[in-house]
């Protein structure tokens, strides 16, 4: 049984004529008759009485027509919404660790489209959810980082989820704090200097591990740690408690303002620096949508790569 055959039956029932139905459907009468006979054979019932006066439904045919109209009606509804020229908005989503440049790139990408025709979503979320969102296609692109410490563990998660990591940029660790912090004017900050202030870390959920932490140098033994689960709270804690976090040093003043600074982290033998490799993840062997391509372009622009 095919949708075409259902369409044929509905049209014949409406016109009560094989000839008129064939004309309306732009098919030859022999082709139409053959299609109906094949369906009758498949179903084991007779759908129409054929005579010189036309075609009328049998009792079985009348009952079957009710189901045919329901099925074909659903098909037409789907095509009306999702087909060419349909009313369904195209969807595009990004899931990311807490990076202001990723949000800035999203803003720049969205400005290039008529947002009345699209449904956009950006999710600043936990590392595990970034991976899960892209794996399930909730988001087309995810943004996260790799380093020597987490590379093997994250790489295994990406491989298991059928995802690919695309390199964007490498950078050293920076200390991110508000502009009036006692250390804000230092040329560099060492680990010992940070001991008096709370280290702020994004909460990764009940199943969190060092490997999923989005702050570089997550394995260091910090004297004070406060966990938060959103960017606004993190910034408030930086101001209210002179807190700090470790980041890539890539910040967007356009979105975050000029109230915060990133100071290079100065390593030592006990507390070495580490390289952050920032990139984006996608499903393996897929072509990015037009929105996805524009977003990657915007990411590269924000990172000064283009």
Key features of this structure:
about 40% helix; alpha/beta; five-stranded mixed beta sheet; about 300 residues; 10 helices
Describe the structure.
This protein has 10 helices and 13 strands. The protein is α/β, with parallel strands linked by helices and 306 residues long. The strands form 4 sheets. A 5-stranded mixed β-sheet has the order 4-3-5-13-6, with helices on both faces. β3, α5 and β4 form a beta-alpha-beta unit. The radius of gyration is 30 Å and the shape is rod-shaped. The model has no long low-confidence stretch (mean pLDDT 86).
Residue windows where pLDDT falls under 50 for at least 5 positions:
none
How large, in whole angstroms, is the Cα Rg? 30 Å
Mean of residue pLDDT?
Answer: 86
Question: What sort of overall outline do the alpha carbons produce when their principal axes are compared?
Answer: rod-shaped
DSSP, total strands: 13
Distance between the termini: 54 Å
- The proportion of residues in beta strands is 15-25%
Question: Strand order within the widest sheet?
Answer: 4-3-5-13-6
Précis, in short:
The protein has 306 residues and is α/β, with parallel strands linked by helices. It has helices at residues 3-15, 18-25, 29-43, 59-82, 100-110, 127-135, 151-160, 231-241, 253-256, 290-302, and strands at 48-51, 54-57, 90-96, 118-124, 141-146, 163-171, 174-178, 189-190, 199-202, 225-228, 245-247, 260-266, 276-283.
Topology:
Elements: H1 3-15, H2 18-25, H3 29-43, E1 48-51, E2 54-57, H4 59-82, E3 90-96, H5 100-110, E4 118-124, H6 127-135, E5 141-146, H7 151-160, E6 163-171, E7 174-178, E8 189-190, E9 199-202, E10 225-228, H8 231-241, E11 245-247, H9 253-256, E12 260-266, E13 276-283, H10 290-302
Parallel strand pairs: 3-4, 3-5, 8-12, 9-10
Antiparallel strand pairs: 1-2, 5-13, 6-13, 7-11, 7-12
């Amino acid at each position: 049984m095919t949708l075409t055959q259902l369409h044929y039956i509905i049209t014949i029932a409406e016109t009560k004529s094989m000839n008129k139905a064939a004309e309306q459907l732009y098919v030859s009468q022999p082709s139409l008759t053959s299609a109906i006979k094949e369906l009758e054979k498949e179903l084991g019932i007779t759908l129409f009485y054929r005579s010189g006066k036309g075609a009328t439904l049998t009792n079985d045919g009348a009952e079957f027509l009710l189901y045919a109209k329901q099925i074909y009606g659903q098909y037409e509804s789907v095509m009306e919404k999702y087909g060419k020229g349909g009313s369904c908005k195209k969807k595009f989503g990004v899931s990311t660790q807490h990076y202001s440049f990723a949000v800035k790139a999203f803003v720049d990408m969205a400005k290039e489209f008529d947002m009345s025709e699209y449904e956009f979503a950006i999710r600043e979320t936990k590392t595990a959810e970034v991976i899960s969102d892209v794996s399930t296609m909730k988001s087309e692109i995810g943004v996260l980082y790799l380093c020597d410490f987490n590379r093997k563990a994250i790489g295994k998660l990406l491989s298991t989820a059928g995802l690919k990591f695309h390199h964007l940029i490498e950078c050293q660790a920076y200390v991110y704090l508000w502009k009036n912090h006692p250390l804000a004017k230092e040329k560099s900050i060492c680990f010992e200097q940070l001991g008096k202030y709370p280290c702020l870390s994004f909460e990764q959920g009940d199943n969190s591990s060092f490997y999923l932490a989005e702050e570089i140098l997550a394995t260091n033994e910090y004297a004070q740690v406060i966990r938060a689960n959103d960017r606004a709270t993190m910034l408030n804690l930086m101001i209210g408690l002179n807190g700090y976090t470790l980041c890539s040093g890539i910040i967007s003043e356009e979105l975050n303002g000029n109230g915060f600074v990133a100071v290079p982290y100065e390593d030592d033998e006990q507390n070495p620096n580490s390289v952050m490799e920032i990139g984006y993840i996608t499903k393996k062997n897929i072509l990015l949508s037009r929105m996805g391509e524009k977003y990657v372009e915007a990411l590269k622009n924000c990172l000064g790569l283009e």
